[in-house]
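Appendix B, example 12.
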Amino acid sequence: MLFLSTYHNRIDKKGRVSIPAQFRTVLAREESPVVIAYPSPLHDCIEACGMQRIMKFNQRVERFEPYSPERDAFSAMLFGDSVQLAMDAEGRVSLPQPLIEFAGLSEQVTIVGKGETFELWSPKAFEKYIERVRAVVRDSRATLKGDVL
């Protein structure tokens, strides 16, 4: 299963946000149903996934030569900045303050499914981002192979 759709939720004063039910269903299929969250390497948002995705990242990082600058950089970014978040009975996770600050989150969050990952955005930042990526898709859809679009 994949993380699909876009949701708008509230962040409470304790930094808790409810993970959408559809996303909880995807996570529940994993051996260890936790949320792994980290600063996005591409955008000013929080990227999140399940443990299986992190294990795939680890396999890719392991392909680099030991002690290479690339392996060191990816390990530090992907694993050093990651936090494991447990969901409470209501499906909420508590976001650490450094992640909240990195993504510029306050009272509202836009949660966006992106297949094997999902992202948590400030609503205004997401509006700007989605306008930009829609233009990219419009301009480059012909480069997709097959009958996708």
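The helical segments are 21-28, 51-61, 69-80, 97-103, 123-140. DSSP finds five helices and eight strands in the chain.
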